[in-house]
Specification:
single chain; alpha/beta; four-stranded mixed sheet; three-stranded antiparallel sheet; 37% helix; elongated
């Protein structure tokens, strides 16, 4: 990029990043989380590592430093207002994109995603770390003044693949409940036992926040945790289809009481509960043994 085009680009960045009258500046500790949440809606070629590294800086600076890591095959930029047009033809595509992303509010239709976006791994892990830090969502929202903004914010998109049978999570416990029961704070703990297949299936639970670890909640070792969805998992790796008819009848009857107990422990802390099994027959047998488990059992297509 030539010197003249680069100077123009910096000018556009400054203009686009000017704060709007309707939005107060978030508190300093909210900036990193707000940047991560905003970046989570975009596709990144580097799994979001640049975003995580630069997330503590103002959003325009993050965009300037990480734009090259954006997967531009999955995103298109439009400039309906014309304010981000760049005079230099050689810098136009990059300049418009950076200017649009650097704006404190993105005009509706300015950013078009051409494919599904899954939250980048590094960004997801950083968001999970914020969840564990105990910062409440109410502390992280920028405060809006009563005057309406002159532009419309782009809705945040965060599509996440979830296994079949997964319902919306329950409301998390209040801060008072968390303080009253510190056992509800998830803790990383080593996997129990040496069952390699079991540990592999647990680690591969989609959006598992504690890969490589068990999760201690309410004095119980759970196999996986989807922190942002607030779902705790128990994994069963029985090769159920090879069992005799006797075992196919008795094994689910033996497993159901423990699954009920684990479900109750999870729900007592505001988490939902899922059980991953390897066989549709195993799923059906557990649901037959306890109809209340319908919707809780998931056949693991990842294991």
């Amino acid at each position: 990029m030539g010197l003249r085009a680069y100077a123009a680009l910096l000018l556009f960045l400054s203009a686009c990043a000017a704060p709007t009258p309707g939005l107060k500046k978030p508190v300093a500790r909210s900036q990193r989380l707000a940047n991560l949440q905003r970046a989570a809606a975009l596709p990144w070629k580097d799994e979001g590592r640049c975003v995580v590294q630069e997330a503590s800086h103002p959003w325009p600076l993050l965009v300037d430093r990480c734009f090259q890591a954006l997967d531009r095959e999955k995103v298109q930029f439009r400039d309906p207002t014309g304010r981000c047009a760049v005079a230099s033809a050689g810098a136009a595509a990059v300049g418009i994109g950076i200017c649009i992303l650097a704006a404190p509010e993105i005009v509706l239709g300015a950013v078009i995603l051409t494919g599904a976006v899954v939250v980048a791994v590094a960004i997801q892990e950083a968001l999970d770390t914020h969840e564990l830090s105990g910062i409440r969502p109410d502390d992280e929202r920028p405060v809006l003044q009563t005057e309406p903004s002159s532009t419309t914010a782009l809705p945040k998109r965060r599509p996440k693949p979830q296994p079949s049978g997964q319902n919306w999570p329950p409301l998390p416990p209040s801060s008072v409940e968390r303080e009253r029961n510190p056992k509800c704070t998830p803790q990383r703990v080593p996997h129990l036992g040496g069952d390699e297949l079991h540990n592999t299936c647990a680690d591969r639970v989609p959006q598992n926040s504690f890969r490589g670890w068990d999760v201690l909640v309410n004095a119980k070792h759970f196999d996986a945790l989807q922190l942002r969805a607030r779902v705790l998992w128990e994994i069963k790796t029985d090769n159920f289809d090879t069992y005799s008819l006797y075992l196919q009848r008795t094994v689910p009857e033996q497993q159901v009481p423990e699954l009920r107990r684990e479900r109750d422990l999870a729900r007592a802390c505001g988490f939902d509960f899922r059980v991953g099994v390897r066989s549709a027959a195993h799923k059906a047998a557990l649901e037959l043994a306890d109809p209340d488990l319908d919707g809780v059992i998931v056949v693991m297509d990842w294991c």
